[in-house]
Amino acid sequence: MNLIKTLRILSFFISIFIFIYIFYKSEIFWNGEYKNYYKPYYYFSFVLILLSITSFFLNDKILRYLYVFFVSCLIALYLFEAYITFFTVYRGSTKIDSKKIKLYKKETGKNYDTRQKFQIYDDLKRKNPRIQIAFGPIEHKEQKIYSLSGISNVDSILCNENGYYATYKSDRYGFRNDDQIWDKKSIEYLILGDSFAIGECVNSDSTIQSLLKRNYNKNSISLGFGGNGPLTEYATLKEYLQPNMKKIIWLYFEGNDQSNLVRELKSNILKQYLINKNFKQDLKLKISQIDNLLKHNIELEREKAQFRYERSFFYRLRKFIKLFNTRDTFALLYQTKNIQNVETVPEFKAILRSAINLSNENNSKLYFVYLPNTNVIKNSCKNKNKHYLEIKKIVQDDLKIKFISMCEELFRKEKDNKKFFPFRMGGHFNNLGYEEVTRVIYMNTRK
């Protein structure tokens, strides 16, 4: 068997293997939750299979040129991967752009904190034994409980996008608030949402709830946590809504709320909140139990080999072989062009309708705040964004909820949207970003 014939057969089996691996990751490992993410990989595998089949009908000379071309492309990709890896500092598995490190040093005179979250956890715990990681909603299957908050009354480590780790003191239920707010006779704002609602990754004086109090003298409480989707947010509303809460601010993030909802609907406990109007877990009465469960989970995460492995040479080598950084770069480009293709989960409308009923029963008013995908503001705020128009129709036209669009109220009006993000590079909002978002919320809800 000559070399060309061997390469034909080998190429065919490699292309089939790549397709099977992609199918496994998409449909089995991730249970179909990230189909949109894996779409370009499916296309790529189909092209490889088609080319490998076509190779059996090409003459040897043409095929030699094609193999030289593909090998050259592969070498170029690995050189690009090596370049990214070489000029990137890692915090565990998370890459930190070297530009951020230089800018932070220039602006503050301090060194960018490149420690992994569990490294700073170990360091701070020597001084403060009670400090914890901000650990949000999670299902505890053995105990048949789905906690919707973090650990109560402790200093909590959140995240680092601005060069420093944001920390906060949690309230009596485990949320990021001044605990005394819960005792006020009137609470003007209740904020629901994901990482933007908790104020990731800024200090506590720059969160939406803090800014509403400081800038507009409005008592406000946030029930947000990173990773929350619409069903978790509705469940949180049912558990913690109080009669003295006047306005409910529902922060909707275009980037992942629908994919989070797909995941949430697989939880029998969370589904009960939607199916059964009277269903509650009475989580306010289970604070001690929730605290103990979350502390146990944090220790399990800390002890996982994954965190030690992520610091190792072999982990970096594995990522290099898989062209992780290169694929991540191309994935962002694909996301930029396909942000409007987000599919709206059918249950989303039912969740909002239930939230309206709950807010009406509580004599509260519900507001819906649309946050575009912050990594691709320019694209996701275009008028032709189908997902945006679909969500706006559901919220504003069908359900008659006050619809506040950050695209229309903020990002389309600003020439320089990069100033709202850490180091002008995307992610969550910086201090200025949260301040402007808070201003838009207040101006549209003050009546």
What does this structure look like?
The protein has 447 residues and is α/β, with parallel strands linked by helices. Helix content is 52%, strand content 11%. It has helices at residues 3-29, 35-54, 60-86, 98-108, 117-125, 195-198, 208-216, 230-240, 257-264, 268-275, 287-303, 305-309, 313-321, 324-338, 347-361, 377-380, 386-398, 406-411, 431-445; strands spanning 88-91, 94-97, 132-133, 138-140, 145-147, 155-157, 167-169, 187-192, 220-222, 245-253, 365-371, 402-405. Strands 9-8-10-11-12 form a five-stranded parallel sheet, sandwiched between helices. A hairpin with a 2-residue loop joins strand 1 (88-91) and strand 2 (94-97). The longest helix is centred in the first third of the chain and has 27 residues, at 3-29. The termini are far apart. The model has no long low-confidence stretch (mean pLDDT 88).
Condensed summary:
The protein is an alpha/beta fold and 447 residues long. Helix content is 52%, strand content 11%. The strands form 4 sheets. It has a 5-stranded parallel sheet, with helices on both faces. A 3-stranded mixed sheet has the order 3-6-7, covered by helices on one side. Strands 1-2 form a two-stranded antiparallel ribbon.
